[in-house]
Amino acid sequence: MTPAIEVRDLVKDYGGQRALAGIGFRVERGEFVGLLGPNGAGKSTTLNILAGLTRPSSGEARVFGHDVVGEFRLARRNLGVVPQELSYESFFTVTRALRWQAGYHGLRRVDDWIEELLHRLHLWDQRDKTGRQLSGGMKRRLLVAKALVHRPPVVILDEPTAGVDVELRRELWAFIRDLHASGTTVLLTTHYLEEAEELCDRIAILGEGRILALERTATLLARHTDRQYVLYLAEPEPTPPPALEPFVCRVADEGRRLVLQASGEERRAALWDAVRSAGLAIQDVEVLRPNLEDVFLEITHG
Fold first, then answer.
1. pLDDT of 121-177, one tens digit each?
2. Which residues have a Cβ under 8 Å from the Cβ of 157 and sit 6 or more positions away?
């Protein structure tokens, strides 16, 4: 089956600066994939090429099998993009802006779908307001509606929750989850790594124009083998027993909590042997597992 997005040997040079150094990846239909990386890694360049805003220096990118350069109309018809920057028609009402956006794709008689989008994105009460009359959160909702008005099978979300409040973030992600559940393919960039960890089937991590990792989210998290253990003690131990010194990260709460760390099965077995030999009166143990932020920093700074 033709993938939703396919990138092959993609290179982009800006003068003497190489933004992309031959990256390649696929996003299968119905997947939710995160494209992560530090600033300058090449994320925006990749998205701009897929959206037809930038031409690659070499290589190719396809959306539902359509080359984004040679078949740009078909590629764009299958793609909806929610940009990071707030861009809107200042003097159009919300409803008119959506009708115009649908018209760019040659679509008419979309009022029922526009009405549904307005209700789902809580824009119905704002439908007769112009862009400049909307709050920042409402403008963000309008960007999502514009990206979806032509019912694209693939949606790119470029930092969709940047600068929005907690309530709007939850509402947007509830809507995006429903959209994905209905079969829409989603490619996400975000600096909120907890969002990517929770939502994405797979994660691609970019660095200096190259793909450093591309794996299922669970597999990526499993690569980071460090574990931290918090020992809650019945009696404070301001100075840890000598047997535990190789494993101690820090002593907290005036010695009532010891934070230990070990990597790999053998090292963890040695840690628990040391705990038993120390003879501590332990009330509770908490295991701190690595999250996507830990893995991201390990990969991009390793």
1. 999 999 999 988 988 888 889 999 999 999 999 999 998 887 778 888 888 889 899
2. 82, 176, 186, 187, 188, 189, 190
The H-assigned helical ranges of the chain are 43-50, 72-77, 94-104, 111-120, 136-148, 166-181, 193-199, 217-222, 265-278, 292-301
| Other beta carbons within 10 Å of 197 | 19
CA dihedral 89, 45, 75, 107 (to 10 degrees): -10
The 10 Å Cβ neighbour count of residue 231 is 22
pTM of the predicted protein model:
0.82
Name the packing angle between helices 136-148 and 94-104 (round to 10°). Answer: 30
Nearest to residue 51, comparing CAs of 77, 26, 25? 77
For the stretch 70-98, pLDDT in tens is: 999 999 999 999 988 777 677 899 999 99
* Residues in a beta bridge with 80: 155
